[in-house]
Amino acid sequence: MEQNELSPEQILRVIFSYAAKIANEKKLDQLLLFMADMGRELILADRCTVWLIDDKNKQLWTKVAHGVEEIRVPLGTGLVGYSIENQEAVIIEDAYEDRRFNPEVDRSTGYITKSVLVIPFESNSGVIMGAYQAVNKKTSSGVFSKKDLEHLTLAASYAGKSLEAAILNREIEETQKEIILTMGEIGESRSKETGFHVKRVAEYSYLLALKYGLSQQDAELLKMVSPMHDIGKVAIPDAILQKPGRLTEEEFAVMMTHSEIGYQLLNNSSRHLLKSAAIVAHEHHEKWNGKGYPNGLKGEEIHIFARITAIADVFDALGSNRVYKPAWELNRIIELFKEERGQHFDPQLVDLFIENTEQFWEIRNAYCDH
Ligand code: C2E
Ligand code: SIN
Ligand code: SIN
Ligand code: SIN
Ligand code: FE
Ligand code: FE
């Protein structure tokens, strides 16, 4: 179906209608689809695709529809590859007349490409991130123009910031998964505790965060970072970490350094996720009454994430066998929390914990070590 070019006013309307959606979108897949739709409407293309560079695998990849797998092609192939490699836009009337065109994708989709417009786009810092590709102009002329190129460039610049944020977001999620995986491996090789300890502390923290009234977003953040609270134990010698009996005063002094070490390990990163993890590692043995370590922080001086993790950690430690002690009965655990209400632990959090003990116990049984 042939269409008429948009007026400048219509073009603005398209951009405005997508601007808010794009600015608020944190999920990379969804953002790529919005950008593709915006490009398609803006320059009357039959199809539009946003390709991103995957440096690690030397590929270009994109998402064309919900529920459909990513499409991946080798970096440097086709018109898109040419455009990125040479950092120049490409406008052609008939793809099959152009040797740079790679008909592979058409062959697998059964679609026939004719006219094509490709523009590379770069990040704020000037690094090429990928390309916008529009295919098959839907006006009577059937070809893309210099004006289309300008409009697509405009669309790309509008979406660029959001795109960088979404890419960073995905990187963080991947980094986080790697860290948790590594943590789990450390846990298995360094201590006798199983990987479920990590999982349980995450779930207890998440549940308590929501009961306390933290936002969904903060609760999810805490769920990711709370299992890292003991990462500083990597630096504690086995003779202490695995000691079957009580620690001497000197040994416990060494053990106590795990809070500071964990903080130093995690605090080097500027990323919010790891900063939050650093705070939790640092403050998870602080006590509400100011008698904890390493800094003797008091009450709300202790970050809420750390106050929550403290309860999750102790609840799990008491409910599990440790090299130095057998698991406690639930009643005895609850007694301890009642005694430590306002001493070791935030009283408000203890109340929430006691009101909802059943839900915590369910998590324990769902991720049981034996
Ligand atoms: P963890 O095993 O993960 O224990 C975390 C926290 O749970 C402890 O922090 C403590 O607040 C609480 N907790 C654990 N077991 C008991 C218990 O039997 N009674 C009471 N009242 N509370 C308990 P804390 O004390 O700062 O210890 C930090 C870490 O030091 C522990 O982590 C563990 O790895 C190690 N640790 C502590 N005490 C001993 C011990 O007697 N022997 C050995 N081998 N390690 C110990
Ligand atoms: C591609 O799908 O790799 C791009 C096709 C082309 O532009 O040649
Ligand atoms: C772990 O090594 O999985 C953490 C151990 C702990 O919290 O005691
Ligand atoms: C944060 O997201 O790091 C702050 C959470 C809080 O203090 O409640
Ligand atoms: Fe600890
Ligand atoms: Fe712990």
Description:
The chain has 14 helices and 6 strands. The protein is of the alpha+beta class. One succinic acid is lined by residues 73, 77-80, 101-102, 105.
| Coarse morphology | elongated
- Sheet with most strands: 6 strands, antiparallel
Report the β-strand fraction as a percent range.
5-15%
The ordered string of helix (H) and strand (E) elements is HHEEEHEHEEHHHHHHHHHH
Small-molecule binders: ligand C2E, succinic acid, fe (iii) ion
Q: How large is the radius of gyration?
A: 28 Å
State the total count of DSSP E strands. 6
Helix content: 40-55%
Mean pLDDT: 89
Strand ordering within the main sheet = 3-2-1-6-5-4
Residue runs with pLDDT of under 50 for 5 or more positions: none
Number of helices: 14
The assembly state of the depicted protein chains is single chain
Main structural class: alpha+beta
Measure the end-to-end span: 65 Å
Give the key terms.
370 residues, alpha+beta, 6-stranded antiparallel β-sheet, 14 helices, 6 strands, 54% helix, elongated, binds ligand C2E, binds succinic acid, binds fe (iii) ion
Task: Describe what is shown at a glance.
A six-stranded antiparallel sheet has the order 3-2-1-6-5-4, sandwiched between helices. It has 370 residues and is of the alpha+beta class.
Which helices and strands occur, and which strands form pairs?
Layout: H1 8-24, H2 28-43, E1 45-54, E2 59-62, E3 71-74, H3 78-86, E4 90-92, H4 104-109, E5 116-122, E6 128-137, H5 146-190, H6 196-212, H7 216-225, H8 238-241, H9 249-266, H10 272-283, H11 304-319, H12 330-339, H13 347-355, H14 357-366
Antiparallel strand pairs: 1-2, 1-6, 2-3, 4-5, 5-6
Helix pairs in contact: 1-2, 1-5, 2-5, 6-7, 6-11, 7-10, 9-10, 10-11
The chain binds ligand C2E, succinic acid (SIN) (3 copies) and fe (iii) ion (2 copies).
